[in-house]
Write a sequence for this structure.
């Protein structure tokens, strides 16, 4: 049982740490040379970190001990960041222990149809859908609820697993009509294949998903959905609902008795409304009273994949990160050429080992009416010798990324708990496959 006081205490400690290092989170890396960002770090940090290779920073990000002598203030930050962040390590015991109590349908039990749900689904999505479906099925059965509404249902891959494999009534809510039409086609394809192995009697018992086109903008719309006769009480499901959609679903869950449970995975925190209605952050009364704020930069960095990044650093696969130094050097050159060009929308260019700064500038500025002198390009190229410092500074910001996500997740958890409902957060997905790997599970007790 999660105690609300414990969640509040963890939130307060995390917020205090974030406030101390807000200056680091709010840096724009492209201003590295313009604002001389490296010199803004504590002097003791600069001296120690300059002696480190990116591989050593990868070690720190992964939580492993390092061979370097580092300042106590820096080591304290690393330790606190790892301790206070909600664990992102996949919980291998996330599957329900009593799966026999949650039987699958005839399609789910038929060995000839075990790969039926893999068609048209990419590997990353397969990983997410299989695990998400198990959690949703478990929660639905515990909640004595046989229907699910999937928001942002896309091509309907999750819905097909829930309907045809786990025998749940499902309705998908999707704003793009072309995705809905394709989802219906995929439903019929699946049934066509299943019919080759199942009797007509069994086929007649299958629950086909219902697809609905709708763009949600307010909680009131959720109360007016054209539900089918089989869907009176239901659970809410969202596999990476973007921006304010996640908070919108949570609000509907706590305010509508017909909603028996919710299973959502966060996404695109930078798109949350934070300064005006509908307030995607903060949601809970407790966090509102604390006056907690998360800047756009903090919410944006929270969406980055720290595990994949640190693994690449550890393996020495970081040459591609030189592009950050190229962009920062170009920013310095542009601002010196004309201050009005600051943060101009240049083209995004991938790094290659044969790329020169001159060729990078030519490609990046192809959409702007800007001509740089040869001397300006040469001056910018001189900055590239510091590219490792750019990588190290980005790594420092990424160290704090899980803390920013922790604040968002704890706020959502507190919001549900404040309404007297059960809530838990499970790290279900492999974070190297799906960086937003926590499922928020709420249900009426």
């Amino acid at each position: 049982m999660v105690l609300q006081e414990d969640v509040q205490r963890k939130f307060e400690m995390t917020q205090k740490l974030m406030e101390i290092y807000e200056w680091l989170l709010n840096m724009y890396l492209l201003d590295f040379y313009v604002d001389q960002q490296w010199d803004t770090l504590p002097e003791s940090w600069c001296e120690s970190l300059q002696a480190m290779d990116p591989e050593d920073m990868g070690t720190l990000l992964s939580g492993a001990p390092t061979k370097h002598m580092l300042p106590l203030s820096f080591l304290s930050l690393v330790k606190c960041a790892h301790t206070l962040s909600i664990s992102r390590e996949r919980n291998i015991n996330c599957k329900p222990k009593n799966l026999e109590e949650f039987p699958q349908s005839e399609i789910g039990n038929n060995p000839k149809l075990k790969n039926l749900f893999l068609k048209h689904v990419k590997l990353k999505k397969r990983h997410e859908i299989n695990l998400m479906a198990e959690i949703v099925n478990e929660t639905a059965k515990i909640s004595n609820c046989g229907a699910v509404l999937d928001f942002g249902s896309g091509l309907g891959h999750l819905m097909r697993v829930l309907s045809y494999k786990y025998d749940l009534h499902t309705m998908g809510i999707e704003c793009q009509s072309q995705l809905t039409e394709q989802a219906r086609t995929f439903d019929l394809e699946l049934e066509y294949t299943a019919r080759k192995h199942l009797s007509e009697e069994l086929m007649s018992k299958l629950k086909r998903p219902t697809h609905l086109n709708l763009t949600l903008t307010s909680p009131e719309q959720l109360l007016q959905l054209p539900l089918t006769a089989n869907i009176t009480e239901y659970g809410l499901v969202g596999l990476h609902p973007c921006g304010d959609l996640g908070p919108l679903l949570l609000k509907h869950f706590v305010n509508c008795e017909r909603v028996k449970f919710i299973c959502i995975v966060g996404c695109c925190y930078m798109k949350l409304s934070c300064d005006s209605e509908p307030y995607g952050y903060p949601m809970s009364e407790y966090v509102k009273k604390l006056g907690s704020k998360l800047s756009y930069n903090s919410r944006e960095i929270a969406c980055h994949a720290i595990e994949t990044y640190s693994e690449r650093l550890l393996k020495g696969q970081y040459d591609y990160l030189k592009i950050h130094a190229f962009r920062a050097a170009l920013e310095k050159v542009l601002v010196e050429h004309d201050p009005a060009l600051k943060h101009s929308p240049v083209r995004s260019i991938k790094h290659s080992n044969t790329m020169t700064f001159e060729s990078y500038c030519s490609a990046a500025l192809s959409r702007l009416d800007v001509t740089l002198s040869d001397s300006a390009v040469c001056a910018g190229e001189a900055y590239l010798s510091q590219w490792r410092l750019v990588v190290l500074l980005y790594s420092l910001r990424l160290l704090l990324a899980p803390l920013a996500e922790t604040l968002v997740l704890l706020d959502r958890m507190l919001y549900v708990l404040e309404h007297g409902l059960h809530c838990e957060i499970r790290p279900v997905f492999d974070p190297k496959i799906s960086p937003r790997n926590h499922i928020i599970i709420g249900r009426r007790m």
In short: The first strand starts at residue 147 and ends at 151. The chain is about 45% helix and 10% strand. The mean pLDDT is 91. Residues 123-142 form the longest helix (20 residues).
